[in-house]
Amino acid sequence: MPFIPHTEADVREMLATIGAKSIEELFDEIPQNLRAQGLAGIPEGLSEMEVGRLMSERARQDGRPLSFLGAGAYEHHIPSAVWTITTRGEYYSTYTPYQAEASQGTLQLIHEYQTMISSLTGMEVSNASLYDGGSAVAEAALMAARAHRKSKSPRVLVPSTVNPNYRRVAISTTGNQGLRFETVPYQRETGCIDFAALASFAGQDIAAMVIQQPNFFGQLEDVDALTDWAHEQGMLVIAAVNPTSLALLKPPGEWGIKGADICVGEGQPLGVPLSSGGPYFGFMTTRMDYLRSMPGRIVGRTVDLEGRHGYTLTLQAREQHIRRGKATSNICTNQGLLMTAATIYMSLIGPAGLAQVAETSMARTHQLVTALGRQRGVRQAFAGPRFHECVLLLDRPAAAVLRELESQGILGGVDLSGDYPELGSAILVCATETKTDGDVERYANALGSALQAVRAA
Amino acid sequence: MNQMLEKSIFEYSRDGRGAEAQHPPALRGAVASAAKEALGAVPAALCRKSKPMLPEASELDVVRHFTRLSQLNFSIDTNFYPLGSCTMKYNPKACNQYAMLPEFLSRHPLAPDSQGQGFLSCMFELQEMLKKVTGMKAVSLNPMAGAHGEFAGVAMIRAYHRARGDLVRNEIIVPEAAHGTNPATATMCGCIVREIPVDAEGDVDIEALKKAVGPNTAGIMLTNPSTLGVFERKIEEVARIVHGDGGLLYYDGANLNAILGKVRPGDMGFDVIHMNLHKTFSTPHGGGGPGAGAVGVSTRLEPFLPVPVVGREGEGYCWLAETDRPQSIGRLSAFMGNTGVLLRAYIYMRMLGREGMSRVGEFATLNANYVMARLSSAGFDLAYPNRRASHEFIITMKRQAKELNVTAMDIAKRLLDYGFHAPTTYFPLLVPECLLIEPAETESRETLDGFIDAMVAILGEASSDATKLKGAPYTMPVRRLDDVRAAKQLELTWKPVDSAA
Amino acid sequence: MSQVIADLKYAKSHEWARLLPSGLVEIGITDHAQHALGDLVFVEVPEAGRALEAGAACAVVESVKAASDVYSPIACTVVECNTELASTPELINQDCYGRGWLIRVKPASASALEGLLSADAYSAVLTAEGG
């Protein structure tokens, strides 16, 4: 019996100990009419050899196209040691570290993670992870509304330069609690938040504002001015950031005069494979002032009975297993294993390596955009500084061009026409340190011929 | 167990050291000038001025550090976890290996469906299998954990009532023994929580339920078998009462392992369920996550499922999103949930197959009743002595606490010295000094006997040397930790001065 | 057995109230409550000036294993909070009827305390709860 070790003798003797005639008898408290009649429609079991073959065939169907997709999930080199260690049984198959004495490895690792991610974001404290970047923005909005000492407003400003899927997740997660997200438009020349449009919100009672840096288009917002403006209006500032970029860019803790209040983001770029969208992890850091409003698990260092240092989950009275209906969130299971991978990634890549990853990604994107821009009918949508993504406008429908590229084994970008119809035919492209001169050249040539093919059709 | 504590990763750090094989190659030629241009365009005010505190360590030091840390953990691969309500079963290695094939790992979430038919076919078949084992009509794989599935479920209940123009239903009924996530979820969905008691035999108090149900009832959240480790025998009556007054039934799938293949939540009358794939379907706990909390619904709730879901399109498979599902409660993750976890659950279910899945509930129940019978005859007090165990059961140390001053916590900590992870303690809250014990079906009889022997030995120690139990554990990397100090003198990040201490 | 002080008034939810010579009322949690919670690690008190209905949640006391709301036994307005508790929540464990007081309030009516339990009646409540 797969994964069940019982011999016939075991079953016989165990039933005798219980005083039951059959395993069936152990279910005698369940009303007969509720009993399942087999599991029709579930296939027969497979051996490991058979399932291995099946999965290899399925994987082969998906192929490995050359990808220039980003939009919230980024292809980066992952050191071999990251997943070799992360999938050790002692991390992979361990439980939530509630029994601290039997979980010092996981607990110390989380504490090291909290230290790294706090420093990277320039904030004071971190939790042990949330589900993903989108849900982290939603939790941050709820936290800001809860933690705001002066405002009881349910309003949160979310510029249209914030990842549209993050905005969707925030709305579906917080709507039942009455939070209201209000959009701020972007400026067409720069692809950044339109300061003039912000003026219409001045003087109003609003709990918080979300600022994404780099923003969804890859452009760099004027975070100092935005943070100071929001603080002047009495709002809390929620920063949504790409962790790789923070090796080069100003950390949210230093934005403006006072710094952002809550910082969140998608942790995937730190050693987590793309894997069709998950599992990733959301990170969240904040100032000491808002610690008790933060959702999720937190690890603290303390001493044991003999005075030796050790680690334990702390401030658990904020959490659902103690506070139940009054908890800061219902989150229980988080994304621990991905946080583990990220901690090992950050340890291996180090500050210099992360800066090189960020610089190389910026350089490759710049090189790509320059090369693609030489093709007829391609131009950049926005001026101004950016990180490792860029919006390109095409003179032919994006969907058709991308399909044409796909037939040449290239995923050329994310079609923005659904979320930003005002841009016309627009794609968001991304190149990271994983791309070579050859990859860039291949895409540029392919785009030229794809546009030609669409024009001809 | 390794007795050595491991120093902080930051103590391996030296200015200018690094794992340089991992750094991207130096930029040459065209890309070097591109770097200069791109970086030059960024105003100084937007740039970072100080180096982040990330380790600067060699690859070998990093590998050793995290390998040593791992050795300070208990895990399923090394220890038995009789952990009630958490279903710690073996995580087959094949599930990990085949979910990590390079094509699966490298697929971008926004890659077109045409570049993911293999992956999507697995997701579609997983949805179908989950429907069949639970008796539900439709499934969404989106939620990323049990609590996230609960959120989706209650949000769907609210959306359903709202779509019918019934705007007053905002109360969620939960039994007082419920998981903390149940009331926390109800609050997150903007609902009011009404707790109802259970009777002396562990079933829902029907009279209290009748009083609680009314025109404001959105629904009831139940775990069955309940958190008390017994099957809710009056489930059909509960369903009649709640449905009769217009409310819906939510099934918390934390204990689905107990009845897998034996009873289906859909047949019990539940309208919406979540399944903890990291419990019942053997995906790893990973030290706290990731999980996966797929939700299943009856026909009337199908339009409200969170998006995206996988649909069929001719011979192929595709994601169905907001435009295909206009009444959906929306998107709960930036992309498609914890897909890598879902792949592992798919592989597990394919390996078990129809017969293997039916055996899960049977052998989990056999193991639990066996351990319960032996512990009971060894002198432990059962919380519900007149009931069958489901896949788990509760013993209470109330008598020993009074007579010997030995608590459930002391037993739990002492078990660590015997090499067993502690059972769930102090949950459910309504049983004093309780230990909730769940020996999953993948544990052999010898392992169970070893655990029982340890429990009996500890009970002996409780009578002969109670102070010894108070000081346990003795063989772990650390002794009992000062939780009060941890909460009052907060040390939430590592500080360089610590190394001197 | 928990300590119950004779000249105080009590609420079933384990708060005590003391009429001060100034006419203000001092409110805290009982010895039974602090014992049940264990070592306190955090206390959240309301801002001065807040009006409270009788039975309204007005403070939170937190230990490592539990967090509990404190309910105002009477209708009142908060005048003063015990700021020492922010850094030394253990005062409640050490001296719950003295230095561990939570808030001082102005009662909405002079007869507010009359509806509360006497020490004897509160002791009877504790006995009934098995504590």
Give an overview in words.
The complex is a heterotrimer of chains A (about 450), B (about 500) and C (about 130). Chain A has about 450 residues and is α/β, with parallel strands linked by helices. Chain A has 2 domains: about 65-75 and about 350-455, Aspartate Aminotransferase, domain 1 (Alpha-Beta Complex), CATH 3.90.1150.10; about 80-345, Type I PLP-dependent aspartate aminotransferase-like (Major domain) (Aspartate Aminotransferase, domain 2), CATH 3.40.640. Helix content of chain A is about 35%, strand content about 15%. Chain A has 13 helices and 15 strands. Chain A has helices at about 10-20, 50-60, 80-85, 90, 105-120, 135-145, 165-175, 195-200, 225-230, 320-325, 335-375, 400-405, 435-455; strands at about 65, 125, 155-160, 180-185, 210-215, 235-240, 260-265, 280-285, 300-305, 310-315, 380, 390-395, 410, 415, 425-430. In chain A, the strands form 4 sheets. Chain A has a 7-stranded mixed beta sheet, sandwiched between helices. Chain A is globular. Chain A starts with 7 loop residues before the first helix and ends with a helix. Chain B is an alpha/beta fold and about 500 residues long. Chain B has 3 domains: about 10-70, no CATH class; about 135-350, 3-Layer(aba) Sandwich (Aspartate Aminotransferase, domain 2); about 355-485, Alpha-Beta Complex (Aspartate Aminotransferase, domain 1), CATH 3.90.1150. Helix content of chain B is about 40%, strand content about 10%. Chain B has helices at about 30-40, 60-70, 95-100, 100-105, 115-135, 145-165, 180-190, 205-210, 235-245, 265-270, 340-375, 400-405, 410-415, 445-465, 465-470, 485-490, and strands spanning about 140, 170-175, 190-195, 215-220, 250-255, 270-275, 295, 310-315, 315-320, 380, 395, 425, 435. In chain B, helix 9 (about 235-245) links the parallel strand 4 and strand 5. In chain B, helix 3 runs antiparallel to helix 11 (about 340-375) and helix 6 packs across helix 7 (about 180-190). The longest helix of chain B has about 40 residues, at about 340-375. The two termini of chain B are about 25 Å apart. The relative contact order of chain B is 0.13. With about 130 residues, chain C is an alpha+beta fold. Chain C has one domain: RNA polymerase II/Efflux pump adaptor protein, barrel-sandwich hybrid domain (OB fold (Dihydrolipoamide Acetyltransferase, E2P)). In chain C, the strands form 2 sheets. Chain C has a 6-stranded antiparallel beta sheet with strand order 1-2-3-9-8-5. Chain C has a 3-stranded antiparallel beta sheet with strand order 4-6-7, with no helix packed on it. Chain C is globular. The mean pLDDT of chain C is about 90. The chains are: A alpha/beta (about 450), B alpha/beta (about 500), C alpha+beta (about 130). At the A-B interface, helix 1, helix 2, helix 3, helix 4 and helix 5 of A face helix 1, helix 2, helix 3, helix 4 and helix 5 of B.
